[in-house]
Amino acid sequence: MNALKLYGVGDLRHEQVKPPVIDEENEVIIRVKAAGICGSDLSRYRKLGPYIEGMVWGHEFTGVVETVGKEVTHVSPGDRIAACPAIVCGKCEPCLKGVPSQCMNLTVMGSRQPGCFAEFTKLPAANVWPLPDAISDDMAALIEPSAVAVHGLYRTDLRPGGSMAVLGCGNIGLLSIQWARLFGAKTVYAIDMDPEKLSVAKQMGADVIINPQEKSAYEQLMEYTDQKGVDVAVESAGSPFTSAEVLALPCKGGEVVFMGIPYEGVRIERFFFERIVRNELRVYGSWNAVSAPFPGKEWTTTLHMMRTGQLNVRPMITHRLPLREGVQVFEDMLHKRDFFGKVLLYPE
């Protein structure tokens, strides 16, 4: 079968590999219909390289059941499915406490076991479930990043009538904007230096867009909020500077959620750090997209909101390409040869 395999930093190859086979009776083999490129994929491509050299890559996808093990009863060959790529052990202390996102042995397909940038892939039965007909393949490929975004917002006390600022309008930031609207936020601020990303943010539900190239995000947000700040500030850019600046955006008693991952050291100026103390902020990290009972409300809520049309991810999708063009599109994304939102790959 066709697959994309990552061998090293900048070394992605389109190759023929053997398709997966059933080894355990609780496994499901899936024919991949659509797979999305995650921002973490691009970071690993240009900075970190693979966990295991030559691993089949990718973790955001949807597909159709091809084969099931003998113990699998909730899906059958031919079923369209949603797929959670996070593999948890279910045995460590966090798992037993009902916090699988903190699993001591958590891994994700595409890192230490073959991923979804291929014609076929494999997951445990607990990680797949039937997909409603109302959700298209393109939409279903974004269920996982949607679950990542709402996982972070579930950590907060955001309520109807509240306000939220999103610092960084990549895919997770854009989904956070739409989830803020679904949580009932009255005002959502989108912050980014890319005008095209800000344009998509408006389509996703942002009320106010802020470009810090004109004036700092902090100064502009304070002007918009009469010097009060917002109830919740989300850091989804993953840059060292925004990881500090986000601390100055919430109001007194407000909240900060870190969803982005900076791959450099973060130096926090005294002014930004003092906001934690002086404003008595609550600061959260948000990792992965699962809760108990596994895979969690992040997934069931996303399915419901997509099925009913309340969650609309279509404005985010900018490219639909065959899998064989995956090597080239990663280079194009790295060198910013076009505006890239969510890129979907389709195995032949």
Automatic annotation (TrEMBL):
Domain of life according to the entry: Bacteria
SUPFAM superfamilies, per the entry: GroES-like, NAD(P)-binding Rossmann-fold domains
Classification via InterPro entries: ADH-like_C, ADH-like_N, ADH_Zn_CS, ER, GroES-like_sf, NAD(P)-bd_dom_sf, Zn_alcohol_dh
Cofactor(s) required, per the database record: Zn(2+)
Pfam families in the cross-refs: ADH_N, ADH_zinc_N
Annotated keywords: Metal-binding, Oxidoreductase, Zinc
PROSITE patterns in the cross-refs: ADH_ZINC (PS00059)
Span of domain Enoyl reductase (ER): 8-345
Molecular function terms, GO-annotated: oxidoreductase activity; zinc ion binding
Family recorded in the similarity comment: Belongs to the zinc-containing alcohol dehydrogenase family.
PANTHER family named in the record: L-THREONINE 3-DEHYDROGENASE
Record protein name field: Galactitol-1-phosphate 5-dehydrogenase
Natural source organism: Paludifilum halophilum
